[in-house]
Automatic annotation (TrEMBL):
Pfam families attached to this UniProt entry: cobW, CobW_C
The name this protein goes by in its record: GTP-binding protein
Stored SUPFAM superfamilies: Hypothetical protein YjiA, C-terminal domain, P-loop containing nucleoside triphosphate hydrolases
Stretches assigned to the CobW C-terminal domain: 214-306
Signal peptide bounds: none
Function: Zinc chaperone that directly transfers zinc cofactor to target proteins, thereby activating them. Zinc is transferred from the CXCC motif in the GTPase domain to the zinc binding site in target proteins in a process requiring GTP hydrolysis.
Length: 309
């Protein structure tokens, strides 16, 4: 019987990783394999981690997590030959990816014999203005969805969910729209029990030329940084950023690594793990639209965060 696949899509910072974390942490006996862009994006509680080998992190609850490096179909083939084989596969796409091409690949007859695309979940930030749906990438992500999950409702005003639902309906999106408080979506909705049936055909439209719209800029330092100066730097950079995330140590709290996240105009901090041997003490990745932010401008702003800068 083919292994069902859940494809998780959504724009940068929408909350896809929170949803995947929730599924893995509350697997309830299901053997789930998660394919993500990088392990650093997955924040599984330490007690769930069992070990790592061959590019795969094993979780104590029977789930596994692997990094998507290179060809997706090759990664799937590796997972499907594990013993025991996963019962479900979750694929988290990049926030800047049009999922239509991934759906086309997963509908390949060779893949369908072993793994079937069961559900496409689009995670939508409820705090975003409805006008955000005018963006072509947002629409592409919604167009292929079976379920749209409204995230960050706890951060939104009382009417945000209603407004976003109305905007989605206006686009005639056939997907079911559900609330995802803190990333929680019932697993029975994402992994239906009835799976012994042919895969339904999916119309994803004609193939569109790939559009290079975003670029990634990195900044590193071997010194701790000033938290107040970082706040000032992010305030300056925020109008140009689509997303940012990183790990650093502050002058104010030496020896306590922090995880930094910026999405939807909001920055958050959380305790982090010590950097690996040989890694820079501060590592932050910034994502912006092409040409909006230069490396020189970024370096100049961020260098002011370093002690003595």
């Amino acid at each position: 019987m083919p292994v069902p696949i859940l494809l998780v899509t959504g724009f940068l910072g929408a909350g896809k990783t929170t949803v995947v974390n929730h599924l893995l942490a509350r697997a309830e006996g299901r053997r789930i394999a998660a394919v993500v862009n990088d392990f650093g994006a997955i924040n599984i509680d330490a007690e769930l981690i069992a070990g790592a080998s061959d590019g795969v992190v094993s979780l104590a609850n029977g789930c596994i997590c692997c990094s998507l490096e290179g060809d997706l179909l090759r990664t799937l083939s590796t997972l499907l030959r594990r013993d025991p084989k996963p019962e479900y596969i979750v694929i988290e796409t990049s926030g800047v990816a049009d999922p239509a091409d991934i759906v086309r690949n997963l509908m390949d007859p060779v893949i369908l014999r072993e793994a079937r695309l069961e559900t496409v979940l689009c995670v939508m930030d409820a705090t975003a203005p409805p006008a955000a749906l005018e963006d072509a990438l947002h629409r592409s992500q919604l167009r292929v969805a079976d379920i749209v999950a409204l995230s960050k409702l706890d951060l939104a005003d009382a009417g945000a969910g209603t407004r976003m639902r109305a905007a989605i309906r206006a686009l005639r999106v056939p997907a079911v729209v559900v609330d995802a408080q803190h990333g929680e979506i019932p697993a029975t909705l994402l992994f239906p029990a009835e799976i012994d049936r042919p895969a339904a055909p999916r119309d994803v439209g004609s193939r569109r030329p790939a559009e290079e719209r975003f670029e990634t800029l990195s900044w590193t330092s071997d010194k701790p940084i000033s938290l107040p100066r970082l706040q000032q730097a992010i305030n300056r950079l925020a109008p140009k950023l689509a997303r940012a995330k990183g790990l650093f140590e502050t002058i104010e709290q030496p020896g306590r690594p922090m995880v930094f996240q910026f999405a939807g105009g909001r920055a958050t901090l959380a305790p982090g793990d010590a950097p690996a041997a040989g890694a820079a003490r501060t590592r932050i990745v910034f994502i912006a639209e092409l040409g909006v932010l230069s490396k020189g401008e970024l370096d100049g702003i961020m260098e002011a965060c370093v002690a003595g800068g």
